[in-house]
Amino acid sequence: MMKLINFIALLCLLFAGNAGLAQLPIQAERAVSFTTKEGSNMSVDLSPDGKTVVFCLLGDLYTVSSKGGIATQITRGIAINDLPVWSPDGKRIAYISDRSGDDRLTVRNVSGNAIQTFEGKLPGVPVWFGPNDWVTTSNDFDRHYPLYHLTGGEVDDSKNISNVVGFSSDYKFIYYMHREASNSLVIYQHAKSRGEEKILIELQGIAAKAAKRIKVSQDCNWLSYLMTEGVWCSLRLVDLSSKKERVLARWEQHVPGIGNSLPNYNFSGDSKKILIGYGGKIHMIEIRTGKDEIIPFTANVKVDMGKPNTATFKVSQDSLQVKYMRSACASPEGRQLVFSALNRIYIMDLPGGKPRILVKQPFSQFQPAWSADGQWITFVSWSDAEFGQVWKVDKNGDSLTQISHKAGVYHYPNWSPDGKSIAVTKGRKVWQGKPMLGDRDGPGIGQLITLELQNGNQKVIADSVPLSNRTTFSANGEGLIYAPSRVGKSGVFPFLVSKDQEGKVNVLATARYEGIGSELFLRQIIQSPDGRYFVYLNEENLHLVPVDPSGAPTILYDTEKKNPVIRFAKGGFDPHWEKGGEVLSWSFANQYFRIDPDMIVAAAIAAAGQRKKMGLAESGILDVEIVPDESIDINLKVAQQVANGMLALKNARIITARENEVIENGTILIRDGRFVAAGKNAEVNIPPGTKVMDMLGKTIMPGLIDLHDHLRPPAEVFPQQPWSFFAGLAYGVTTAREPSGSHDSFGYEELLKTGQMTGPRFFNVGYAVREDRYPNMNDLNEAYIIAQNRKRMGAIAVKQYAQPTRLKRQLLLLACEQAGLNMTNEVEKDMRGFIGHIKDSTFGIEHNPLWGEVYNDVIQLIAKSGVYLTPTLQVAYGTELGRNHFLEKYAQPDAKMKRFYPEEEIKRRQEELKKLKIYAEAHQELPSFVNQSKVDAAIRHAGGRVTMGSHGNDPALGAHFEIWALQMGGLTNLEAIQAATIMAAGGLGMQEDLGSIEPGKIADLIILNKNPLDNIRNTMEIQSVMKDGVLYDGNTLDEIWPKAKKFQTIKN
């Protein structure tokens, strides 16, 4: 109950605060405290009287005497406050703050706590426009921003002066910049009273392109700017009378930041000095002489942070309750249900029957559909060796018949009303003449065809149609209703059409498409047989739309129009009409739902009326809370693949990954898929009847856990055995997390758990929560729906991906906490956003940011925050890619790679290596990925949590590359191994069951022929791999124990 009260309170908080602006909903519940004498990426400014410096440190503002001393922290709280600039009278400080949920211009009094936030979203550096009362921002791009008065007024009269870079001391002249069509950068002097302009200077060449944070001194004698070249950043000074240029300061960055994320600096009021932060210090540099005086400071830092969002999970080896069930549909009389799960077609009696396999075949089965008479079921199959076909079988599982004559990738078959033909879509992707499955985001496009049951004749109805939609026949059986192809990236498109026997096409429904989510936008669109409604899937939710009574195409989705769209199911897939449209059914997880669609409309009418009574604005999509008429549980439980029996691995060197523990001449005892003991030979009692294997000369370490492994398995129709899965296991990856998967990823997770696919233990986040895919996540309720849908499917985490505002990121984090899930984040590349992640107390961050400079303050904050940082050095931002360093040696396949990698993948990698070499030659200015890795090592050595994530570009191999890359930055060999084992287990919230060789934990391990503590590259010297107690040969994946079993490799 208390959680619910807190949740509602947070909703209220969103609409409280200054000037009607929302406030960040996460509140400070803890603080990280430490003392530092250096700072990273500090923006600085000197007060007009020259006595006080204001600077930013870790998202807060501080002041210190210009002579140095103890700094005073002047902002506290969860917000990120940055880029401070003194007002001309020294009474106020303007800065950029996200306290309202997004970056906004903010002004505070120096003498008190009065804070004023302006509504406009103005990126850039604050600029005082006039003596004291007008303020705006300036950026390095040609953009125009309004002027704000401290009384709250706003004017828009400076359209030709959009990028202010300075003022004269009397404010009669404004200096601004403009990038010309010739690519030169011109600095103008504008006389305010007369409107006259003249050119001060024109920068050309590299300076015109690279100059950032351009300033003109108040005496108009100097122009300065920052420029980044490789890892070096320099402060450059131009004498405006002689036009001579010199470098005033130059320093090295660890990883260069984005140009507009460079710290701000300023001239002193007398134009004789420049105050700038770099190298961890605050510098006062005399312009004439270049004399550099460091202003020492000591900051007693207190960084306010949110409550840690840390959920932990048990890894169960008990029977699995299957949740990924698709294409569930009831028989015409409503007494039986068919669905696909675990790559098989199941049938059960309604309402409470036990699911049973409809018909056994040596390949996978998907997408069943009933015939109109309820006697037959059609479905599609897939074989990695023989590809796909279309079938029919009677409801008792007898009379199995292949309908299609040509192998292909078939999707969503459906019967004609007379039962004489089947409509189905067929993919068109091929490689070397072989049909190819789709990718992670959808099956792609192909042909719509009909197949005659009597002779198998094929007729093409339409080309380039999306394969993710089920075709239906018109009520009279003489026409087909399907989703057509869409050409173009934005606009209003037909989303459902009908085509009669004469070939006439009629548009039934349209939607406005703005490139949202590609194939994932508006899927599974079907019209009710009685012609009254449309239903469709968007995100993971189902929507009902009444058919336009005028006969015009019904609008399914259009942000520019107020058409009736009703969201009735939060979490739903595969809508299906029963009883001629009287009943609407769907499924989600292991439940099947039914409802009278008229009840949905009635609930929507009531909700609309209540909305008007409350004075709420009309919404394009109306949400209804409605209980289905029927909610039927589908109880399909299957045993997981776990070894039974006892095994002892004796005489091994054991790297347990528990602290610094390494056991020489040790024994590991395993029973029923878990570790029972690990210790010196003499300390471990081996019970009678235990299988004993001699590991003399071998080193055993925990199985690898890859927290960022883009495996990208195909959607909708699955391969029998994805090669990237079994290759990963062969190279020692026993657990992998897909950081940006799909709803279908939950199906792969179950297939791997039950041993129907061979590969790592697999966790996924579903679809990453991106702005383009979830554009309506504007409040806590929407965020909670997203998190709860994943929880219902068995997810342990949600992936936040580049949501455009701090507010949205916090909303999703709060929703995850409420749902009992962890949230991991695609990193905000700039340090401002990255520190925001840390202050929010997010659980995980994937990829390193563009660090700029990194000193003790940043290192301490990350280490003390408890965040799990997965650097993903193989595709590091701002540096060369880590994989470039390793790929050349491993692009040429050895016998093991040839066994587990498809031929086309080996060829692709060799071609990619050529492109990477060309790229590296063209970008020699990029620093080494080791610059990133050194920062990660410093965080780890300060007590932080650094984990391994390969990014999946090089399946199986990439995990080792990443371990080696982490070690190259300064981690010891053991620390690098721990990043891929016990630390990574913590990054899943599963450190109690995974990540180390300890009694009670799951038996995942790698047996190595050489010791990785001697040479980290020995992690790839694999003899065998164990997952859940099952021991596999590392070179063949043949099962060694508890049963000997050959592995059949079909590399699809």
UniProtKB/TrEMBL annotation:
UniProt-listed SUPFAM superfamilies: Composite domain of metallo-dependent hydrolases (SSF51338), DPP6 N-terminal domain-like (SSF82171), Metallo-dependent hydrolases (SSF51556)
Signal peptide annotation: 1-21
InterPro entries to which the protein is assigned, alphabetical: 6-blade_b-propeller_TolB-like, Amidohydro-rel, Metal-dep_hydrolase_composite, Metal_Hydrolase, Metallo-dep_Hydrolase, WD40
Molecular-function GO term, any one: hydrolase activity, acting on carbon-nitrogen (but not peptide) bonds
Gene3D superfamilies in alphabetical order: TolB, C-terminal domain (2.120.10.30), Urease, subunit C, domain 1 (2.30.40.10)
Keyword annotations of the record: Hydrolase, Signal
UniProt key word Isomerase: no
Residues annotated as domain Amidohydrolase-related: 856-1030
Top-level taxon: Bacteria
Keyword Hydrolase: yes
Protein name: Amidohydrolase
